[in-house]
Model the fold of this input.
Amino acid sequence: MILDGKAVSAKIIDDLKIELAKKSTKPYLAVILVGDDPASRVYVRNKKKKAEYIGVRADIFEYPANVEESVILEKIDELNDNPEVTAILVQMPLPEHISKEKVICRISPQKDVDCFTPENVGRLTIGMEPYFYPATPQGVLMLLDAYDIPIEGKHAVVIGRSNIVGKPMAQMLLRRNATVTMCHSKTENLEDIIKTADIVVSAVGKKIVRCKMVDKKSVVIDIGIYRDSNGNLTGDVDFEEVEPVVEYITPVPGGVGPMTIASLMYNIVKS
Ligand code: GUN
Done:
């Protein structure tokens, strides 16, 4: 069965819009965008558009690539102190001369809708409630829950150890009582480990998951998204050969991508 992230996401977003229409106070999303990375521009524009669709005020604060670090840190201070601003998002990547760590640490955890700050990541890790869960892993869990796919006690294999996807994905699966194995670029016998998974979550950016690694009970979640040599959008899973074999699979595009947006909108409404 194909897990329809597009449909589940649309339903979540429309429910958020209805919920927000009933409220007297509205969230306000402030996005900081530095430089002119074309992909970042597209992401930021989409986030603003979707936020406005559900009734959220959203402003993008743009800076040239050579902006001084102190200017960004001061802007974050200003947004932290502005009681109207409920959600702050600093689009990554930042130029080399700006310390990503300093920037992340400066964001108020109560406005950190990405779950980037050490406070929120720490809360996630020690079993406290973070103010917000990270958008992509939360979106994956929302999708599994929408299809009533059990997580507790299952062996989940997470491939990829990035701070914004792989690591929090593993933590969140652990909180749901999965048995979690983390794999990454240095993992030996990756194929054998994937074969032991009930749930495979891949966030790598290259073709990893093939039909010989899965079976009819497998749940396959594809977070990888990139363009192949023909310019087509594709994921980490060989969809054509894996889809007929497994129980559940996410398509690329139309799987985890739209769920990430829905999940971010959920955080912004919560803010
Ligand atoms: N760059 C790539 N993904 C993300 C994300 O989820 N949040 C932010 N702020 N920047 C990103």
